[in-house]
Automatic annotation (TrEMBL):
It holds the Pfam family Cupin_3. Residues 33-112 form the (S)-ureidoglycine aminohydrolase cupin domain. Residues 181-208 have a biased composition (Low complexity). Gene3D superfamilies: Jelly Rolls (2.60.120.10). This is (S)-ureidoglycine aminohydrolase cupin domain-containing protein. Residues 181-214 are annotated as: Disordered.
Amino acid sequence: ARGTRTLMRNFMSTTKGETHVLTSAAEVTESQKSEAESWPIWDSTEDFKAQKQPKFVLRYRLEERVVILSGSAQLSPTNGDPPFVISAGDACTFYAGFVANWVVTSPMRKHYHYFDAAGEMCAEPSKTMPVIACDAEGCGKECVDESYSIETEDICPKCVQKARGPDKRRYQAAVRCELGAPAPETGGAQPAAATAKRKTPPAAAARSSKAKAR
């Protein structure tokens, strides 16, 4: 569609990486600014009242495009790429799968919108994807990207791996899920704890060897 092609052309950039595209304020066009005017605005002013230089981790499940109206933030990608700064006037596209530690260094306001794989505008991730938290006691970690479903519970991979005793045996029947649905490539694979080969205890192995020798 014409609108999609225009959006993608407007948000091409001078600095490109595998996970994001950053356009400095000097390179942002009037067309980009005009396009973003109808998008929602994210405002961190209230966050600054509660916490000096708010810090958080963002995992981009969908592509997000932004135009910074005011303020600044330092982003540190978790994949080891160099940190970078976005500030007033900049435009940036964050691709799906990008994960970064954010430090908002001065109160920020930005226009933003989400886009699907075809480049079409779409709803926010919270409105299009399930919210899943680990039900293991004392955990509660978000695990929508990968979880193991057992009965009415959702368990994160870490809790499955460290499970002991009755829980470990119970998790052997769990189904591996992605975004809340059975993993398509496996049709519901069992967790590592369930598929790991069981080692024969030394004493049992010795008895077996003696039996074969007779």
